[in-house]
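Project standup — Tuesday

K.O.: blocked on the structure for the chain from last sprint. Re-posting the sequence here as requested.
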Amino acid sequence: MPYLDGPGRNDESVIHALLLGARAHIYIGTLDEGNVLAERARRLAHDMALPILEGLAYNELGILCFVAADYDGAMAAYEKALQFLEGSDEETGLMKVRLNMANVYHRRTDFIKSVTLYEQVLASAQKLGDEQMQAKVMHNMASFYEHFLNDTEAGIAFFRKSIELYQRAGDVVGLSKAYANLSSQYRTAGDNDKAMELLEQSLAMRKDEGEPDEIMQWYNRYIQCLLYGGEIARARVLVNDVLQRPHAQTDSAGAVYARLANMYVHYFEGNIKDAYEIGLRELVWLEEHDIGDVAVEVRETLAQMLDEAGETALALDMYKRVLEDRMRLSSARAETRLLYMKARFDTDQAAARAEIERLRNVELASAVRRLEESNREKSEYLAFMAHELKGPLSTIRLIASLLSDNVDLSDEHRQDFNKHILQISSRMFDMINTLLDRARTQHPDAEDVGVVDALMVWQHVLKSWHLRAAEKGIVLRVAADRTTYPVRITEQVLVSIIENLVSNAVKFSPASTTVDVDIRTTTHRNDSACLRLSVRDQGPGLTKEDLGRLFEPFRQLSSKPTRGEDSSGLGLYIIKRDIERIGGFITCESTAGEGATFIVDLPLEAAA
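H.V.: unblocked you, prediction finished:
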């Protein structure tokens, strides 16, 4: 990828591009080239001290090892990935690594560890609402229940749920895999037409783009469906095409599946000699690579060929071996099911004991939680009040500076500035009194509410913000569609709403832009009249991640104030709580790079 080597390319985007390139090589079967790109991404992340990206690079190296059937190498890489990702906010990356580790345990037939990890990842995905990850886990668990616990009913249920989730997530690759695996259920049940229909859908979705071994395996199944459906000529055309593909010439599982498809076609064509030679040769590869289920199927087909060729003694010996292998596999699966049930029983017992212990201490725990919650609310409120006082103090400092530095100011202007200082100081005094009242009552809601004219309160606050916005070269425009807006609320909450929203708009807006404050009446969700306040800026906007955590306490967003102003991360959290307490709503509409609009709806009082 030479285009990544130019000037200015040594950044995170290069690492992401390298990892995407590595994944693409998996899809086309060039694993060595994929390893080169993934290792390059890992070294670059290491040199740039980016631990999360280094962890994701190790995860990609593990996937490459897994596809190459190097399960020890895969597990070593996944364990390295966990070291870098644990303790970070990269929940999706952690889930992927744990899911991949579960797949390794699955292949190693360490099914207890495998299903335990699957269930952990599924719980995390459900908590985060990640439907694509839920689909992947359920897909893998379906295979586990079907093939190793012999619980076909549970397997089908997991497959169907994974298909539903893949469809909602729009994951075509995952959906195609689920269709292909579900087809084996119908094939086992004797519904060859349905199995063939699912495989046709699966192959059409992938358009031969994907892991070559997997695609070859699906073609193998599809060709068998054609043969059992009597379409031998069509099967011959398709197998000839598959055998000409580059991956069919390699020493890989996919190539073996292609040649086994050819064996089945020869067999149905009546060419038993060639079919037998192909099957016997590929059987050695399957046993060397411990692909037991497929090896048993091939051996049984070889026994049928010997029987039809009149080699009764050899066929009998082959059938005996098939029976032994099936008994061995069944015994291993029965043991796995027993171990799994015992592990689940032990887990349930431990959970029951923990629940009993929890119930014994529930009263104490409840008292501790109440104390902690009370302390947390007091701490948050103190932090919020400090945040609220900081804005008015900044305005007073600005006015004092203007009075001091501009000796030519007229008496009229000085009187106007003094009036602003008096209004702001009075508001600060009210805030402190409120804080003292709350401290005395130890209850954050002990406030008297009344009908307040929101426009009058907001006009007083906005007068000072015209000055502060102008200092940054920002124009503050205010529009209202009426002269009074009666709202049942405390004056302090109204002040907090406008202070926070306008303060944030000015903080995050660059010079030579406009902040628009629009106040008007509208219809509430329950068809009642309400006051709608909109504050729109032309700042950097908010990312999807920022919007998701916007109203959480103490959250710092990705964008920074344009002049390095302070931001406690409490203001929006507190005003949202206060707005919702009186039946109002607050939302934000934003696209990264295009500014943000905060919208507040407050119930209007009916006219007297």
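K.O.: great, moving the ticket to review. DSSP finds 22 helices and seven strands in the chain. The mean pLDDT is 82.
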